[in-house]
Amino acid sequence: MESHKKWDLLSVASIPLTMTLANSMLIPVLPAMQKALKITSFQASLIITAYAAVAILFIPLAGYLSDRFSRKAVILPGLLIVSAAGAWAGLASLWSENAYTSILVARLVQGFGSAGCFPVVLPLVGDLFKKDEDVSSGLGLVETANTFGKVLSPILGSALAIWAWYIPFFAIPVFSIISFVLVLFFVKSPTKEDDSCKISLKEFLKSITTVLRQKGKWLYGIFAVGGISMFLIFGGLFYLSETLELRGVKPLIKGLVLAIPLAFLCLVSFLSGKWIGQNKHVMKWTSFIGLSTAAAALLIVGLFNWETTWWIVTMLSIASAGIGAALPSLDALITEGIEKEQCGTVTSLYSSMRFIGVAIGPPISALLMRGSMSTLFLVIASTAFLAALITIITIRPGRNANHKEIN
Fold first, then answer.
1. Nearby residues of 148 by Cβ (< 8 Å), 6 or more positions away
2. What are the C-alpha distances in Å from 105 to residues 85, 90, 108, 118, 365?
3. What 3-state class would DSSP assign to 406?
4. Predicted confidence band at 199 (pLDDT cuts at 50, 70, 90)?
5. Rounded distance, CA 356 to CA 228, Å?
6. What is the pLDDT of residue 4?
């Protein structure tokens, strides 16, 4: 990897870390919010969903703007919006008579800001490096930062909530401003010097339509698998958080337990990013094996109704490791399989699908939990098997799998 760009990459990696903290940090605090705001578990899950739902709508626009102008011109305002909305949610918790409604509105605004942050990171990494192996390694680090944020989130969220349940909202601006400063001063992203390369929105949409028509089969497959992966992660975390709360686990211990599956996700994601290199056959089979492993672990939980905490945590850790194996490959397949001029928008569509998974995971889990644990895990195991099947059918690398060639 180009040594003089290590600070660029580390600064870029702070973005997914910050965006993950802005959402996942609230998961262990949701039961406390239920009690304080006097809301149901489903209503509490919407605090997570609101953030992701609005981001889904604006991510494609952010991708286009990042291609049209520059990545930093989209990322920096996004970080400021995330910061301001975090402060808004915290203050609403303290002073608003309709605190729940105000928090939801603040989370919607925060989701708008996040649309210009993490989704633009993937094409930015592609811009920073010339060699495909450097891009794969960089994406592995970014995905690791994302998953490390997931590991840190429940611990940090639980620790802050010991002080008061609304304190995590105030922590979001702190992390966002740190990331803003790092990106502002250390990231030197390539800029388009020639205005002739700045095509109109109509021309750009036409070019994207062409890309989707030519490469839609495998792109749609990756989009679907990315969304399912996030659904599995956030659905499982929501269930585990609610279960630990019902069993009377202390807040900080609860955060540590929630972090265990996410630690497996983080570790395997990092190792997978190193392993896959630029070989698309390896990416395909790593994704398939990882998702199949996740599906098998979740199916076992659904079939064998053992409700001991450590049994559930162990199986969720295995499932998380399988998803961690797949995520860097999905990132690399898109970033290295699409021309840079269109990469921002295509990866933003992929990010939208991932945010859909984040948005629907908690509320669907809340609804399925009204039935039984078996019902919940049989449903999410089925979606994991579907993701593995989509991977094996739709992703077909060409003969020369070390170049931009996927059928």
1. 17, 266
2. 9, 12, 5, 21, 23
3. strand
4. low
5. 9
6. 62
Q: Are 115 and 59 in contact (CB under 8 A)?
A: yes
Q: What is the pLDDT of residue 389?
A: 95
Mean pLDDT value of segment 343-353: 75
Euclidean distance between CA atoms 319 and 179, whole angstroms: 30
Give the CB-side neighbour count of residue 314, counting CA atoms within 13 A: 8
Beta-bridge partner residues of 397: 406
SS3 (DSSP) at 401: coil
Q: Provide the whole-model pTM.
A: 0.76
Residue 2 carries which DSSP code?
-
User: How many Å apart are CA 284 and CA 15, to the nearest integer?
Assistant: 27
Nearest to 212 by CA among 125, 334, 375, 307: 334
Rounded to whole angstroms, the Cα distance separating 158 from 35 reads: 15
35-54 pLDDT tens trace: 899 898 889 989 988 888 88
User: 3-state DSSP call for residue 308?
Assistant: coil
As a whole number of angstroms, the distance between CA 404 and CA 407 comes to 10
Q: What's the one-letter identity of residue 32?
A: A
DSSP 37-87: HT--HHHHHHHHHHHHHHHHHHHHHHHHHHHHS-HHHHHHHHHHHHHHHHH
> What is the separation, in whole angstroms, between the first and last Cα of the chain?
29
What value does the mean pLDDT of the chain take? 84
Distance between CA 155 and CA 168 in Å, rounded? 11
Structure tokens at 196: 């002739």
